[in-house]
Amino acid sequence: MKNIRLLFFMGIVLFLGGQSLYSQTKKERKEQKAKEIKEMIDEQRFTIDVDRALPMGGRTVNLTTPYYFEMRGDSAISYLPYFGRAYSLPYGGGDGLRFEESITDYQSTFEKKGTARIKFVTRTKEDTFRFDVQVFSNGSAIISVTPTNRQSITYQGEVAPKKKE
User: Fold this and answer.
1) Going from the N-terminus, what domains does the chain have, and what CATH number goes with each?
2) pTM value?
3) Entry's Gene3D superfamilies (predicted)?
């Protein structure tokens, strides 16, 4: 009977000890991910894989094709669809937000709880786009785009893991 109690007690101790080890590694993984995201934003080199579009005047659109937004130093690369009303576009235009252009008015700040906020402006032949990107410490991201000649649109996605070189 004593052996059973001892065995039961040891089992509980091992179980509780394993739980605390697991929670520490989970916390460490969360901190590591937040650190990697901060590094990517500081370097201005990150990619956001977009999976949802929220047009200003319509329903949420779940995206199945791999759309993305990428920052590479002083350039923005956008391969995003556009859903909404365009007020003025050149003839044959309106191909979504697909461009690779330089950026101006770049501002980057880190708010409480590790949220990064990036604001900049980019110009294409069709329009001028004002971007407001929020990247959270867990890797999720919100991209708000305010074009000059179209309705605003918001995208949601995840920061792609850093490519190992």
Assistant:
1) 39-159 (2.40.128.410)
2) 0.79
3) 2.40.128.410
